[in-house]
UniProtKB/TrEMBL annotation, chain A:
Pfam family, any one: ABC_tran
Organism whose genome encodes this protein: Sediminihaliea albiluteola
Gene Ontology terms for molecular function: ATP binding; ATP hydrolysis activity
Keyword Methyltransferase set for record: no
Keywords: ATP-binding, Nucleotide-binding
Domain ABC transporter, residue spans: 2-246
Protein's name according to its UniProt entry: Fe-S cluster assembly ATPase SufC
Highest taxon of source: Bacteria
PANTHER family noted in UniProt: ABC TRANSPORTER I FAMILY MEMBER 6, CHLOROPLASTIC
InterPro entries listed in its UniProt record: AAA+_ATPase (IPR003593), ABC_transporter-like_ATP-bd (IPR003439), FeS-cluster_ATPase_SufC (IPR010230), P-loop_NTPase (IPR027417)
UniProtKB/TrEMBL annotation, chain B:
GO process annotations (BP): iron-sulfur cluster assembly
Domain SUF system FeS cluster assembly SufBD N-terminal: residue ranges: 29-158
Domain of life: Bacteria
This protein's name: Fe-S cluster assembly protein SufD
Ranges for domain SUF system FeS cluster assembly SufBD core: 170-397
Pfam families given in the database record: SUFBD_core, SufBD_N
Family indicated by similarity: Belongs to the iron-sulfur cluster assembly SufBD family.
Length: 248, 433
């Protein structure tokens, strides 16, 4: 599904990713943990092609195609979805119009039949319910004035509408109350299948109680310095990151 | 003063009813004794008046140009259409309830003429508004809308001024006088339009809105003129106690548009909301000068203008709030936001606050920005093409004001018109509409 090889990237002349390797197979769930500022969000941004993030070496492919050569929207068409750590507020553009534009474009790019407005609304309403957002959120400006947790649920809603192949979720669990955490976990678990993969960036082992990962990685100073199974998350919870950093 | 308007001045004097003679004289005196503004004139600092440097001609009444190609909103209710300055009955329709009257100056009997003369220009300081003086001096026909106390006019009253482009360097005078009696209510829409091809026209448009105690006026001034059109004009409103003015302004670009909006709060408890959108592109210029005069206590004004400036176009927004010493408990808000979609686009925005009362609330803000790359990226990360994302964000920038338009027919007319302004490709506008 996703193959990242020796990835180096910089932001404004500062090296952030320094030889990152990661391989994700279809159906797998990978958790990435690591200290603040280690480069987790940078990894997501580089995969999504955010302006200002420059790859200086290495490769990243999704479904065998070179991601790094593509425009941001082409990556989304191919099946990449990044749930942002800090979703953007867009006053004046309604959530509904935004979702419809995204769904229509992505479906077109995949050669799927276009979805009727009625079916779209049905689906949007059902997903609103699943992510526990009131229907009025569809009419509001994208993320405009949403609380932290509402923004995260809105990211999840977009993910469920777009049905991507690879979901990179950057701290979607941060700032969520216990019930909302459950909502996110249920959403992810419902989407899990043998074709779809997840990369979950998180600071909290708790999320992994609800979404069981196949692998847990530790990202530190721009590289993956340790990989294990879900027990690694428990160990990190207990010991912190300091004991690993020497090994880097 | 240069004589570029000499022929229209002479023509007006011969065309107009005789009872306008002293108004002509009054306007002419100011016009001829005031030098033409230059870049050194504070109120015209950023506006290039070069497009006026031609010899303008008054329209010829014997022409009845075809205007079926000119697009303007079709609204229910009364519609008065003027083409190249002349009233066109076959394009118009008057349908008013009892207690409301529309009258053309040219048709006024002596009693009506007296009523018009008593009100006309009452709210305009012509020394400060040179082009209003020119309007007086070239006035041949105008429209007087009178609504009696306690009369509610449900349907909109639409005044349409078209220029046909069949003659070059045409000078058109537009004048509207509205008087709403106490506790009356009406919706007045002014539309200005022309063809994209054809000769230049200079429209000098002045509207006066006089609101009695407790009156409510929804007012729209839609400048749909394009290409070579020049419009210099203004809206001068006076608000008596507890009256409410909701005024919406739109300026699509054209060579030059300069609109002065002056609202005088004359009675306590008056309120106005003035919103506007301007969208110049190419080498067009749009200049809005607004002035909220708060002369008495306990009034409010709220102003929101948004502009998107493309290509090499330029815009000026000057928002003056003048709170007189007696105007305690005034609440005045002013917001002007601008989006520049090209590196050569330009805007000069300036709030101008003069506050002489101490117990007031006054908030103002002006911003100039380019399209936010992080926002654009967010849309693209969801698969939306860059081109469509730009259209969505441009429309999103003005959408709040479009949605706030009270008159549904106007909103429905403007939405696709504005969307197409950002792209002619229906695929890129389909999610807005
Ligand atoms: N525009 C920028 N200019 C300079 N430095 C930047 C910029 N963007 C990110 N960085 C730096 O890159 C480093 C990695 O940031 P990143 O956001 O990837 O960390 P993270 O692992 O996601 O952290 P957190 O757990 O706090 O979310 C940080 O030191 C950050 O300050
Ligand atoms: Mg981060």
């Amino acid at each position: 599904m996703l193959k990242i090889d020796n990835l180096h990237a910089k932001v404004e002349d500062k090296d952030i990713l320094k030889g990152l390797n990661l391989s994700v197979k279809p159906g797998e769930v990978h958790a990435i943990m690591g200290p603040n500022g280690s480069g987790k969000s940078t990894l997501g941004h580089v995969l999504a092609g955010r302006p200002g993030y420059h790859v200086t070496a290495g490769t990243a492919t999704l479904l065998g195609q070179n991601l790094l050569d593509m425009e941001t929207e082409e990556r989304a068409h191919l099946g990449l979805f990044l749930a942002f750590q800090y979703p953007v507020e867009i006053p004046g553009v309604s959530n509904m119009e935004f979702l419809k534009a995204a769904v229509d474009t992505v479906r077109e790019s995949r050669g799927q039949e276009s979805i009727s407005s009625v079916d779209f609304m049905k689906k949007a309403r059902a997903i609103c319910k699943e992510v526990d957002l009131d229907l009025s959120f569809l009419k509001r400006g994208v993320n405009e004035g949403f609380s932290g947790g509402e923004k995260k649920r809105n990211e999840l809603m977009q993910m469920m509408m777009l049905e991507p192949k690879l979901c990179v979720m950057d701290e979607t669990d941060s700032g969520l109350d216990i019930d909302a955490l459950q909502v996110v976990a249920n959403g992810v678990n419902a989407m899990r299948n043998s074709e779809r993969s997840f990369v979950l960036v998180t600071h909290y082992q708790r999320l992994l109680d609800y979404i069981e990962p196949d692998f847990v990685h530790v990202l530190s100073e721009g590289r993956i310095i340790k990989t294990g199974d879900k027990s690694l998350a428990l160990e990190l919870e207990e010991k912190g990151y300091a004991w690993l950093e020497g090994a880097a | 003063m240069s004589d570029f308007m000499q022929q229209p001045l002479d023509a007006a004097a011969s065309l107009a009813p005789t009872w306008l003679a002293d108004i002509h004289a009054r306007g002419k005196a100011v016009w001829q004794n005031t030098p033409m503004p230059t870049r050194k004139t504070e109120a015209w600092k950023y506006t290039n008046l070069l497009p006026l440097q031609q010899r303008f001609q008054a329209p010829d009444k014997s022409n009845t140009p075809e205007v079926s190609g000119i697009n303007y909103p079709q609204l229910g209710g009364s519609t008065l259409v003027f083409v190249d300055g002349f009233y066109r009955e076959e394009l118009s329709k008057i349908d008013l309830p009892e207690g409301a009257r529309l009258l053309r100056f040219a048709e006024a009997d002596s009693k009506q003429a007296e009523a018009i003369r008593a009100r006309l220009g009452q709210a305009i300081v012509s020394k400060q508004h040179l082009f209003a003086a020119l309007n007086d001096a070239t006035l041949a026909d105008g429209v007087f809308l009178e609504v009696d106390a306690n009369t509610v006019v449900d349907q909109s009253i639409h005044l349409v001024w078209l220029s046909s482009g069949q003659v070059d360097a045409l000078s058109v005078n537009q004048r509207l006088l509205v008087e709403l009696g106490a506790n009356s209510k009406a919706t007045v829409v002014e539309s200005f339009a022309n063809t994209a091809t054809g000769g230049t026209a200079f429209t000098n448009g002045i509207s006066e809105l006089q609101l009695g105690d407790g009156a409510i006026l929804d007012h729209y001034r839609l400048h749909l003129e394009q290409a070579e059109a020049v419009h210099i004009g203004g809206v001068h409103a006076t608000l008596n106690a507890s009256s409410t003015l909701n005024s919406f302004h739109l300026a699509l670009g054209s060579t030059l548009k300069r609109i002065d909006i002056v609202v005088e709060h004359r009675g306590q408890g008056a309120h106005c909301e003035v919103n506007g959108i301007y969208l110049p592109r190419g080498e067009e210029q749009v200049d809005y000068h607004t002035c909220m005069e708060h002369a008495v206590p306990n009034c409010t004004s709220s102003e929101t203008f948004r502009g998107i400036i493309a290509d090499q176009a330029s815009a000026v927004f000057n928002g003056r709030i003048h709170i007189h010493p007696d105007a305690q408990k005034t609440r005045a808000e002013l917001s002007n936001k601008n989006l520049l979609t090209s590196n050569q686009a330009e805007v000069n925005t300036k709030p101008e606050l003069e506050i002489y009362a101490d117990d007031v609330q006054c908030a103002h803000g002006a911003t100039v920005a380019q399209m936010d790359p992080a926002t654009l990226h967010y849309l693209r990360a969801r698969g939306i093409s860059k081109a469509e994302a730009e259209v969505m964000l441009s429309f999103g920038f003005i959408n709040e004001l479009v949605e706030a338009i009270r008159c549904e027919a106007i909103r429905d007319y403007l939405k696709p018109l504005l969307a197409r302004r950002f792209s002619h490709n229906p695929k890129l506008t389909r999610h807005i509409l």
